[in-house]
Design a protein that fits this description.
Elements: H1 5-10, E1 11-13, E2 19-21, H2 35-41, E3 45-46, H3 49-58
Antiparallel strand pairs: 1-2, 2-3
């Protein structure tokens, strides 16, 4: 299976095999969000366990 082009732009696999991606709600309507909250959004987060199987498949790591 080919790697999904959209997924490879949005997710990264770490050296230990974990999946990282951008945080949700971080791209617009930022005026009402606190600076602390916006700073936290700048850092990538681990993908939820329920989504990991799907993301791995899209990145070409599934069966």
């Amino acid at each position: 299976m080919k790697t999904h082009s959209g997924a490879k732009k949005r997710f990264k696999k770490t050296a230990s095999g974990k999946l990282r991606g951008r945080r949700a709600y971080s791209s617009h309507i930022l005026e009402k969000k606190s600076p602390k909250r916006k700073r936290k959004m700048a850092k990538p987060v681990d993908i939820a366990p329920s989504d990991q199987r799907k993301v791995r498949t899209l990145l070409g790591g599934g069966k």
